[in-house]
Structures are given as C-alpha cells and as structure tokens.
Design brief:
The protein has 170 residues and is mainly alpha-helical. The protein is built from 3 helices and no strands. The longest helix is centred in the middle third of the chain and has 124 residues. The protein is rod-shaped.
Amino acid sequence: MNIKFILLLAAPMFAFGAGSGSGEYDIIPRVINFVIFFSILYYLIAKPVKAAYHGRINAIANRLNAIQEKLKASNAKKEEAAKKVENAKVIANDLTQAIKKEIEIMLVKIEKDTQNEIAILEKSYEEQKDFEERKLVRAVVSEVLDELFASDAMKIDQNELINLIMKKVS
C-alpha cells in the first residue's frame, strides 16, 4: 500500500516534469514546488489527522475498557450465581434431611395412634361382648324364672321367699 501511495504522489511529477520536447527539464523547481506543497499540506492536515488517529485509538481503548468492565461484571454475576446455586443445593439438602426426619416422626406418631385406636377398639369390643353376655344371661335367667314362677311345680309362699333372701344377704 505504501508503494502505491508513493507512486501516486510521484506520478504528477513524472507526467508534468517533462518539457515540451525542447530538452530542458525543469524538474528541480517542480520538486521544490511539490515539497513546499506537501509541507503546507502536512502542516495543515497533520494535527487533525493525528487528533483523529489518537481519538480513534482512545475510542477503541474506551470500548475495550467498557467491554472488560462488562466482562468483570458478568464474571462477578456468574460467581454470585454459582454461590447461590451452591447455597440452594445446601438448603435443598437440609430440607430433604428435615423432611425425612419429619416423615419418620409422622410415621411413629401414626403408628402410635393406630396402636391406640386398635387398643380402644379391642377394649370397646370386649366391653360390648361382656355387655351382650350379661344381657343374654339376664334374658335366659328371666326366661327360666318366668317359667319357674309360671309353673305350679314350685310354689313358694312369702315366708319362705323372705327366708331365702335373708340367707343370701347374710
């Protein structure tokens, strides 16, 4: 690229440097004019070109710094998210352990309640069975006594009944 630029700048010198065929060459005044022109051009354009160049370098550096800051921020967020994930794993593990313990406690409680309920049901069954037996015995005794009192085979007068009751009481 530099060679093309130099050739481009030197082309007018070769094109206009030749005389009209008289054999006289005015190359030196033309080179001096060119150097003066190039010096003036450099004097006028050098500072803005340098300023633009430095501005471009600064803009690229600023963007690079901004990108690095974003990268640092995203890395910090990534590390924070990783810490949160680790904390969540620890909390989840603790919750699982607590739930397991709670399940064991509930199972023991349910088992105790079931055993108590079974004991209550068995006791109720026994009481109901005893009640029914007493009821049946009363009914049988009542029936037997009714038959006895209804029949003429056993006639007890009042004095004998009182004596029997007195014997039982004493």
